[in-house]
Structure formats: structure tokens, C-alpha cells
Design brief:
Mean pLDDT: 94
Distance between the termini: 56 Å
Low-confidence stretches: none
Number of helices: 6
Shape: globular
Structural class: alpha/beta
Helix content: 25-40%
Order of helices and strands: EEHEHHEEHHH
Strand content: 5-15%
Number of strands: 5
């Protein structure tokens, strides 16, 4: 069972990101403040849920949260500042949009840049232990997936409706055949490096 808070009585915002390991599309982050009495047994780390479960939980979280926000950082900005900074920047932009100021920030992972003067705690596998982080992981994932399905209409040859920009074999094959788009992260290794032994019998 996920923990509802780290410090009882404190207004805590959970933060998480989605799409960090993708070859295409933005990195997306969410920040969520849940009511003190919020309870939902289905909420878990978004990676442990099916797409249908995530989509079912999204409107519940958005409706019942005290406040929530989602923000994205584009592939171009990722290329410019690197994916770690981009992930944290997306979290900061989500926090900027909250209508209630948190008294503490809970972040999935082990890296974060301080946000103003609000204390933060990084929690490895926080999306599997803290309710607010798990809720943020669901919002980040579902909003990003929705965006990638929209991009798929413009670039159907890359299969983004299915692979969501992750480095699947089919996605890499499409990049090899059609080349990268403006939505690809050009600082990432889009195609495998050829082996020194390729072509040698």
C-alpha cells in the first residue's frame, strides 16, 4: 500500500516524469497535490499499470486532486540542455502551474534542482511507494501518450501511437528508412553504432 504522505499534515506535491528514455517526443512531468484523505487502491507506479488502467485513473486524479499540472520540454530543448536537466525543468514548470503552493516536494528518483525555497525529498522508486508521486507518474504518462498519438497522425510511419517514441526495433527501423524528424532527439543515439566487425567474414 502506498504512503499518503512523507510528513503528516504537510502540503506535499508529488513529481514524476515520463519519456526520459525515448528517442522522440518531449519529456513530460506532472506535479500533484492530493487531499489528505485521498484513497485509491488502484493507483500505483504507472509502469505497473496497463494503459487502460492509467486512462481510467487519470480523470479520477484530475478531478479529486487539490491541484495538478503537467508540463513538457521539447526535443530541441532536451538536445540543448541534456535529458536530466530537461526532466527537472519539466517538473519545475509543472510546479509553477499549481494553484496551491506546496510545503514540501516529493520527487521520484535521486536527482533534483531545488525549487525556490520549498524543501524537497528525492525518493528512489518513489512512484511505487508514495501516493502523490504515483499519481504524478500516471498523469505524466497519460498526457505524454496522448501527445504522441497526436504526432502519430502527422508521422504515421514511425509507429508512435504504439511505441510512444521509445527505442523499439520497429521505431529504429523507421528512422533508418525515413530519417529523423523534428520530433526526434538528435543528441540521442537514434540508430545503433555499426560494429567494427560488420562486414568481416
Amino acid at each position: 500500500m502506498l504512503q499518503p504522505y512523507l510528513i503528516a499534515g504537510r502540503i506535499e506535491a508529488g513529481c514524476d516524469e515520463a519519456g526520459r528514455g525515448c528517442l522522440a517526443g518531449p519529456v513530460t512531468a506532472a506535479a500533484v497535490i492530493l487531499p489528505a484523505d485521498f484513497h485509491n487502491d488502484l493507483i500505483n507506479d504507472s509502469k505497473q499499470l496497463t494503459e487502460r488502467q492509467r486512462e481510467r485513473l487519470r480523470p479520477i486524479i484530475e478531478r479529486e486532486a487539490v491541484t495538478w499540472a503537467v508540463a513538457m520540454v521539447s526535443p530541441q530543448e532536451i538536445d540543448r540542455i541534456n535529458i536530466l536537466r530537461a526532466s527537472i525543468t519539466a517538473m519545475h514548470r509543472a510546479l509553477d502551474q499549481l494553484t496551491v503552493r506546496p510545503e514540501g516536494i516529493l520527487v521520484d528518483g535521486n536527482r533534483f534542482i531545488p525549487y525556490h525555497d520549498i524543501p524537497h525529498t528525492t525518493i528512489i522508486k518513489g512512484d511505487a511507494t508514495m501516493l502523490s508521486i504515483a499519481a504524478a507518474s500516471i498523469l505524466a504518462k497519460t498526457h505524454r501518450d496522448e501527445y504522441m498519438r497526436l504526432l502519430d497522425r502527422e508521422f504515421p510511419q514511425y509507429g508512435w501511437a504504439n511505441n510512444k517514441g521509445y527505442p523499439t526495433a520497429d521505431h529504429r527501423a523507421a528512422i533508418a528508412q525515413h530519417g529523423p524528424t523534428i520530433h526526434h532527439r538528435h543528441s540521442f543515439q537514434l540508430l545503433p553504432q555499426p560494429s567494427l566487425f560488420d562486414g568481416i567474414d
